[in-house]
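User: Before I run my own analysis I want an independent prediction to cross-check against. Here's the chain; please return only the structure tokens and, at the end, one sentence I can use as a sanity check.
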Amino acid sequence: MSLGSKIKSLREKQRLTQSELAKRSGITQATLSRAEHHLINQLKSDALRRLALELHTTVDYLVGKDDATDVDSILRSDPEIKGFIELYSELNTDSRDSVKDFMRYLGASTANPDGQ
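Assistant: Structure tokens:
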């Protein structure tokens, strides 16, 4: 399955429109549309991380390095994640948004360690 097909499938499973996913991930709706229609087949690593976060999957799944898309498979691959998810589930909406923002910050600083 292609990157665009995976994005579309996961987006539809979560009952999100392209517009909603674009807003949540900070990726333009036009880019999502082009990916879903196979007009582009690669995205920048930061965009992939943000999409994976919003689609509740991994970058490896989106780019075809891993077939695990369901939560159980992801949890089996890294048991420590289960504890993080349990803590996250106890947070209120504002705190969850803060966690997501922090994860995006960490992802951006990892992708660009020199701040360039």
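Sanity check: The chain is about 65% helix and 0% strand.
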